[in-house]
């Protein structure tokens, strides 16, 4: 994992697309980017830093960005590579109400004494400890400044005071980790620290390397997950898992789900949400009532932001406040959202007020989908007076939220989903069918999320016919829609077209096109392979059709004995 040397908080104003949600967390003020080994060598060994000459280092990042893991790697490296170094690790959440100095000289030193068979630290041990500080051999690695309790309410001010008044502590080399929220969100009393921000993994190289390491004992499983991520329509998830925590959740998810992603996108995000609440549950404990309240308000915030805000994913403090209260109020939902990591500070405006963003833009779309109770929010068609209707189905920013809504698992929504897709399929615009087609294509994408729609096969068959009809004006759009449609249903529709018994020219062309399409999407699918084999063995099928069937079989039948 890399790090970037940081000058000051970002003042970038622009929004991002949700497919690239991680862009919100990229630095705009960059002095230098370090790969892992270069950081260890240049910053820690050569002490080449602008402010503190390597003596005061802060590693900041969003939740799950790998700050603790990085600090652990630094601890191991310093112990090995820096002569006479004494590395002391402190999880700042463990201090409770204790001062750092008394924690080191009482709690920590007592643990050292016990390891050498003594009940408590002798005077000699304490004197030796003092000497180590005076010889500049002590490295203090302080993990999780944002998790430290502080009577002043601001851990930065509190730890700065303890450094100042701690006498010997100021002799140590100090590395600490902190969430961006806290580091940027208030007056920073640690301005003598050189600041480095942890970078996300690169996709696909580092993401795939992590997956192969995670499933080292079962390499085939790793390969399957990497392949699943590359599928069309998984762009948001590819971006989502550049963050180490979210990638860890995906691997856990894949491990417990018998080697396949959940059937719906909403199912995947719901598991992410459940797992995310379990992460660091000891440091930021929440009860079910708090989680429920927070989820409801995050949903209202997400829905209103996509609907009304100019920058839908970079949220102004004043806008967020309307839903979640004030960050300075310890009991507010905003404070809880920041502590849990659902929202993060991603910059400041010209008045030095923070901008917030969801943990990833995809979660904003998911929470918005959870906040919508009635399908008419997306579509309320008034044919004779469209200006009085609601047509969010034609606004691109709502498409992903619509698909997530259709994938929600609550059974009481099934009737609503049937009605909604029915309304899309039967939409009439009275305007050269331009909007009718768009509504139909959205319905076909929606069926991949809600497979129980009662006319699903009929809809998919219609889209397939449009893609192979050489006269169709919407062939390209239909092909694009087909990529987002349930693959199993598409294969079934193509196989049905292959098995037609009619022998006229138009049916022959349709069969050739269907065989060609199966060659594109049917890899490893037994039904597709069997249908192509059957076509090859038919004595009534012409040469051109059988030739296309043979080509397609060559593409999708690898490893199949009959093929």
How many individual domains? 4
CATH class of the largest domain reads Alpha Beta
Q: What proportion of the residues form beta strands (DSSP E)?
A: 5-15%
**Largest sheet geometry:** 7 strands, mixed
In order across it, which strands form the biggest sheet? Answer: 2-1-7-3-6-5-4
Shape: elongated
Number of helices: 24
Question: What is the count of β-strands?
Answer: 12
Q: Whole-Å distance between the termini? A: 45 Å
CATH topology of the largest domain: Rossmann fold
Cα-atom radius of gyration: 29 Å
Low-confidence stretches: none
Helix content percent band: 40-55%
The SS-based structural class is: alpha/beta
Oligomer class:
single chain
On the 0 to 100 scale, the average pLDDT is 89
CATH-derived architecture of the largest domain: 3-Layer(aba) Sandwich
Summarize the structure.
The chain has 563 residues and is of the alpha/beta class. Helices cover 51% and strands 10% of the residues. β5, α5 and β6 (173-179) form a beta-alpha-beta unit.
